[in-house]
Amino acid sequence: MNKSMLTRGFTLIELLVVIAIIGILAAVVIGSLNDARSGGQDASVKQSTANIRSQAELWYNSNGYSYANLCTQTSVDGLLSAAIDVVNGTDYAGATHGVSTYVALNTITGAASGRTAACHADETRYVAVAPLASVAEFWCVDSTGASKQSATAPASGTYVCP
């Protein structure tokens, strides 16, 4: 009976191997979850900017067939603000509604410079852009029907996606 009690259980090496395997599996799962979160944030930004296209057409039809003042509309302003909130993870305290530029704080490089959501519109055309969360690029929609990823945001006075 004494011998059988000594042979039961796991050795220290076996326990360490199991713990190491569990640690490796956990690291793989956590990495996958981070990728999924970034993909979800990008999908949200893309949807918000796509909704700007719908709002722009509604504005165009109700504003005498003109996109003028589109970017100051509460609906467009709210969609840009929502896109930035997704990228920032929190509300951006410096953003004021009615202004058509918001700065994303959590950029890929860690610097806020150049990572802005913006909207430009004149009588016959518009462009709206928001930074993506997973890459240092932007999602852009414009009045020509373009909806695409872009390395740069359109400059002021430019009404097409770059």
TrEMBL record:
UniProt organism field: Candidatus Kaiserbacteria bacterium RIFCSPLOWO2_12_FULL_45_26
Keywords recorded for this protein, A-Z: Membrane, Methylation, Transmembrane, Transmembrane helix
What InterPro entries does the annotation carry?
N_methyl_site (IPR012902), Pilin-like (IPR045584), T2SS_protein-GspH (IPR002416)
Q: Which Gene Ontology BP terms does the record give?
A: protein secretion by the type II secretion system
Keyword Transmembrane (UniProt): yes
Question: What residue ranges are annotated as transmembrane?
Answer: 12-33
Q: Which PROSITE patterns match?
A: PROKAR_NTER_METHYL
Report the locations given in the UniProt record.
Answer: Membrane
What the entry lists under PANTHER family is as follows: GENERAL SECRETION PATHWAY PROTEIN G, TYPE II SECRETION SYSTEM CORE PROTEIN G
Q: Which GO terms describe its cellular component?
A: membrane; type II protein secretion system complex
| Stated name of the protein | Type II secretion system protein GspG C-terminal domain-containing protein
